[in-house]
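User: Design a sequence. Structure:
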């Protein structure tokens, strides 16, 4: 059935009737499948008489072909049988008890498609596999109910987890090596109503390709940020929700600071990238190797720079402040909604305001926003009804761009993501306001020309780089 977007909608079962290579080679898309045979749509620009016998031999079933518009076939193939950007075949077959290579193939496919996470979930009638690509989950495969438990056990064995424990959550790690690519995977197993749900986070192995100038800072923001991280001591905090790119920003910062005469120590959970010349420690809370306990040991290791994966509690915050007071530069992340909200969060954790004022160098908030595909974005007249109610735009916008979709973006309309930042450098006046418990600083920040996340999001939308719906939550924060 062709939808309004001009491609044929396929169920996961139909999609798995043929491999990606077969679909592209014969330029066919499954229409329906039964015990008697399979009916395929075929590109109307091809001759198909000779291909029926080949397909029947390959699939072991009777095959019928119906011609359909070539553009529809092209669009459907690009969406459901995506070609890999990174090489490798990445083919994944429907899993059954005999398909022992499914886990390896699934990981390879996720890596080739640039996925950050693999979700494997069980429900009453079926089990499914979804991949998170550019921040959005896309269903890719289904598993049979009887094969699901054995597949979960396969993951547990590779992660060195207890296969007999099905009542409690478990966390593990897989070291994946395909010969050409080597990386780690963080595995989380969670008991749910119909079976265990597994999420596998694909971790990077090399931070050499991360460049701080390409992350999304404006020139003014980057200059302000680098001024804070180049101070010999103090705290630099990056805030934002999970998946907003905080760790990537930290590693890009460590690359700037990584010099032969500098001793850099990090404690992380998990270690997502490796950097030559930096001493990295993996958190292990089950043996009481926590952020706070590792930080105590770090202070005896003569560090110049300390990176904490996250400030989660008062004990860690206290140790971070103590490290900054004793002449160390401390980099970390924290969960708050804005750069200034970091101050309130530290106070809630029990850090005295006068210590925050004397140790905090820079506070940063960041978010990731999907970018429109430059090849196919569609220009249309813009109306103010698209804005959140009570939002006051910085300037009038007459036209905006919509996500359209083409072969190069797999008909999603989006290609890549960009980080948006809010950077607040601490100075004497702001420090005095913190000491006095005055946290209403919006006017002072505006007088300093500090751009909020909402303002940067509006500029990104105004320049036609993203769609209004992508920045809508950020615009709400400015109301």
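Assistant: Done.
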């Amino acid at each position: 059935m062709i939808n309004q977007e001009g491609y044929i909608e396929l169920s996961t079962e139909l999609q798995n009737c043929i491999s990606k290579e077969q679909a592209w080679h014969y330029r066919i898309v499954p229409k329906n499948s039964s015990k008697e045979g399979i009916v395929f749509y075929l590109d109307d620009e091809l001759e198909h008489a000779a291909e029926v016998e080949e397909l029947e031999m390959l699939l072991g079933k009777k095959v019928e072909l119906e011609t359909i518009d070539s553009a529809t076939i092209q669009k459907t193939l690009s969406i459901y049988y995506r070609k890999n950007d990174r090489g490798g075949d990445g083919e994944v077959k429907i899993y059954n008890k005999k398909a022992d290579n499914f886990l390896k193939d699934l990981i390879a496919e996720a890596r080739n498609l640039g996925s950050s996470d693999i979700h494997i979930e069980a429900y009453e009638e079926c089990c499914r596999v979804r991949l998170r690509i550019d921040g959005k989950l896309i269903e890719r495969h289904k598993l049979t109910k009887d094969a699901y438990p054995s597949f979960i056990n396969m993951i547990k064995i590779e992660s060195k987890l207890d296969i007999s424990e099905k009542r409690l959550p478990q966390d593990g790690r897989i070291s994946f090596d395909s010969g050409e690519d080597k990386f780690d995977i963080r595995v989380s197993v969670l008991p749910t109503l119909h079976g265990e749900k597994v999420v596998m986070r694909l971790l990077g192995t090399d931070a050499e390709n991360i460049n701080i100038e390409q992350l999304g800072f404006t020139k003014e923001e980057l200059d302000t940020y680098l001024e804070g991280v180049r101070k010999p001591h103090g705290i630099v905090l990056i805030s934002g929700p999970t998946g907003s790119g905080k760790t990537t920003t930290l590693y890009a910062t460590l690359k700037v600071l990584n010099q032969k005469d500098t001793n850099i120590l990090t404690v992380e959970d998990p270690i997502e990238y490796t950097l030559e010349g930096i001493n990295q420690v993996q958190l292990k809370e089950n043996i009481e190797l926590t952020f706070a306990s590792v930080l105590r040991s770090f202070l005896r290791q003569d560090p110049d720079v300390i990176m904490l994966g996250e400030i989660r509690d008062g004990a860690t915050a206290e140790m971070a402040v103590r490290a900054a007071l004793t002449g160390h530069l401390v980099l970390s992340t924290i969960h708050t909604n804005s750069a200034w909200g970091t101050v309130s969060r530290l106070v809630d954790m029990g850090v005295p305001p006068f210590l925050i004022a004397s140790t905090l160098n820079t506070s940063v908030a960041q978010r990731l926003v999907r970018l429109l595909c430059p090849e196919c974005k569609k220009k249309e007249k813009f109306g103010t009804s698209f804005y959140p109610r009570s939002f006051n735009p910085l300037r009038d916008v007459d036209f905006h761009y919509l996500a359209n979709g083409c072969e190069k973006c797999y008909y999603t309309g989006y290609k890549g993501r960009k980080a948006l930042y809010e950077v607040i450098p601490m100075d004497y006046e702001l420090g005095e306001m913190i000491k006095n418990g005055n946290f209403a600083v919006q006017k002072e920040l505006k007088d300093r020309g500090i751009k909020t996340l909402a303002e940067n999001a509006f500029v990104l939308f105004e320049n036609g780089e993203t769609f209004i719906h992508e920045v809508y939550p950020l615009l709400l924060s400015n109301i």
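Residues 86-92 have pLDDT under 50 and may be disordered. The two ends are 43 Å apart (CA to CA).
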